[in-house]
Queue: 2 jobs
Job 1
Amino acid sequence: MAGAEPSELNASVAAKARIEERNPAELPVTIRNASAVPAYWVRITSPFRMARSDQARVVAAPSKVIQRLDPGKSETVSVLVAGQLPHYDPATAKLSLPLTLETLARDPMPLAPIEIDLPAATPQLDHATLVQGQSGAASISAELRNIGSAGYVQMPEIKAEPENAEGKSLGEASPASLPADATLPADPEIKRPLSVALASLTDLSVLKRLKVIVADTQNPLHEWTLDVPVTTLGIARWIFAAAALATIALLLAVGYQLVYRNPLTVQLSTQPAALLDLDPERLARARRLLRFTRGLTDILHQIKSNLPWLDAAVAFTRGSKRARTEQLAKRLGTTHKDPPLINTTGVLGTELRLPTGFPVNIDELVLVVPDAALPAEDVLAAWRAADLGSRPIGLVVATSATQNARLVRLRESWPDNFVAMTGAEITRLLIGPVPVETLARVLAREVDLTRISPYQINNAVERESVFFGRYQQLRHILERDLGNYILLGARQLGKSSLLSSLRAKCLHEVSRFVRRELG
């Protein structure tokens, strides 16, 4: 704009971030125009910096361009950031990422640099011991662990070479054998036993050290070189050590079968979305197994859930009827009304006001929460005994898989205003990313269409969430100069609903104007 002052922009971004080498991350940056004139062609960039191949580095791609940012407005853009560690002996690095705010008609503005934590694996070999058998065969047993801040996607390859005290090679050794299908997470308490078989010609009398090369098998590839001292274990001690190792191996094998090869673990590892299809009763076991395998956080991330939601869902199956009612109301972003409409032995029925913008034409329902041990027939009998009439819709949420299955079998004998959720639907309501949409789909499927249809013949549609269409007419009236309009149409075509929507939008604009003038 000719003659206008340059726009004043400011940007806010997190001061620290953790970037994994295999997983570039998007850093959100919020840009605000604090001036009185628009800003054009606004974006976030990072100056390119050269780095040696033996140094860690971090790079960032430019954000998208905001073509126009009006005064007082804010917009959030993402900067894609990736990190790279050196090939040989990488270690955890803390780097600084400079960012620059660029816009048309003014000099680039440097932002405060972001501290980037770039984690790396750090293998360590402990207790390398020479073991001599009665047959003359010799091997070196040891324990491998990861003391770094990043885990290995797959178990690395291990190559070893025996050496004397001066570091001279004593010949070749076979590649180290490791437990099948094991992983090496970033946890120094987790140790993986390994064994290196020595060649028959190796001079064991001068064997003092073991040179070990740990090679990553997944891109990006890395190598670590370790120099490990070797101690000697005699034949008598070897028998005891072999027995101890055999016992440990047996326990590891049993634990592996019980945890890693458990059908539920295998299913959730290959199909994370299957967690949403479990009955609520099985969530506690799934959480326990996935914690053992260190895969819980990743699976929850893939289904757009989180650990607090899962912990609350596990507690839901063990809580009181009152606690379960309050938890469901909180998940749906609403509240329940007291006193309860049904409060008999084993059944609590509370009126629940559905949130504003609920996608189905239902304002409220009765949430029925039974005890897990109560027969399904008694749940239905309690609803009928309450004699609430045909208008309110009852939604029964049971936590017992047996009770749920019986409720489904009784579906044909239900009144048309009584709905039961399956176990999978309850789980999606408790830990899914869209609980309101989950409930709406259940009601739309189970309730007669005439009860929930947004089409009304008595008066205008008041709820904005069930007002559809007429967008062209709304824009024509709201976005033109003031004038008079005549609304013509046959009966039941939505004239009153269109007027109601216009009134709501005009009142909203007036309210915004008053707040702006008074504020």
Job 2
Amino acid sequence: MTGTTNRSRSNPLLTLQLFVLLIQVSIPLLYLRPSSSWSSIGVEIGQMPPQPQQLRNRPHPPPADESEVAGYFNGVPVTYVAASSSSPPLHSTAHCIGETFAEKSWVHRSCEYRNLCFDLEEMDFVLFRSPDEADLSEALKAHDMARGGLLTVSSALGTTVSLGGINDKWTWKEGAGGEDAGAPALEWAPRILDKELNEAYYMLPESAVLLPFHSMAAINVGHLIWDDFLPMYTLLSTFNLIDDRHHAMPLRYVLKNRDRALWATCNLRDKTLAECKGFFKKFLPLMGVEPSTMRSTEDSVLNTTTAGGGLRSRYVCGAKAAAGIGMLTDHGLKPGHGWDKRDYDLSHNAGRGPVLNEFRNWMVRNLGLDPTETVRRGPPYRIIFAVQSSKDRDRRVDFSPQIKALEQAFGSTVTIESINFADKSVLEQVRLAMESSVIVGVCGGGAVTNMFMSKGSGMVLYYSDRPSGKQHDFPARLDFDYFNNAGYARVHWMPISSMQKQTDIDVFVKLIKNEIETISHH
């Protein structure tokens, strides 16, 4: 039959189609082969890659051969790389993002560095310029468009960034030294050496990510978490340095271009420095950082394991580093966190909900907890009143009427606790927040624990709605821009001035009733 004869005959078009199909199938299979890093730990084809471990205070891994450890830089193991004619010299590279082509562009920029080194003699960071980068730099200097700012290169080593978050109370007056230099003192780039590193040096583990930063106001836990930790997390995430193969190594930068530290910063006084150190020690585990490994540019130290303890090089280098967190805080260039009327003209965190949620989850994982836990749906619903959370007189409130009203309205349906979170360890604070259905408190730094509440939970934040001085003459819904854009928990705002009135207490009870109803169907 004709049909049978046709099927047995060679068909060039069919052969070509089959060949194309074979290629289409084979190419994806090539990409399904396990990578060397996966196969080395026993991951077979079809298995999921290893997930980030839930570790607490993850240490920087030492070299595979312990005998290779040549010392410890701020407690982190380093190896010694001897000068060798057979090894290529070390040079640095940069990748900078966030350019706005404006005068204050440096506030917006962030840079990722390769081979950023710390100079133990100058106590500062340095980059080593390669011949190719030197040629590019000279060409840019000679180019009219580059001098006029019309030609920009994202890999230029001298690109400046903001070392830390900006406090609007710092003056923008230009100058260097004394009281003249305010916010502009944060404009920074590592010192550039116009040569490759041909001499010996110490090297941090491949997993270490150096993070030079200037702390905006770590004397307050809210500023510490949202103006230091949040931007550092965002920086790491931006450059894909946030997985379990990397370990953050923050190093607090003490400004060298001022005679006096900026207002409200760590080095302003001995008292503020002690407060900063205390808060860092307590809360650095949230970043997965062992507190003893974080020092400043003034007290960083390399302890060698060599006989006699002498240094064989002035340089400690990190293969990976990043800096530039000016616009990555929870407020950016807004005047403040809710004290100023202008704060309410725009939102810095609109659409940033996924980042805020992942930031929360990252810190929870760093404590060894499961960030995917959701709020309990059934009774008894756990309601926590955060007491004594503020030192400010206008935010020292008595929740007795609210507690009594809830006890009468709900009985055994709820459990009510009054807790001073400041008395608890970080792990205890996070667990309490995760296990609560509703937290009631006042806004401000003391409310930072609320950010760890589980998905589907709710909070009631009381705020000072009356002027408390020349600087604070507007209802202060502090940190509203953060909480109102963190999509995993509901937030409600109530004024302090009328919280003792029965009408307000009635509204509060109905609000909690609605919260419980919402949680039960979440």
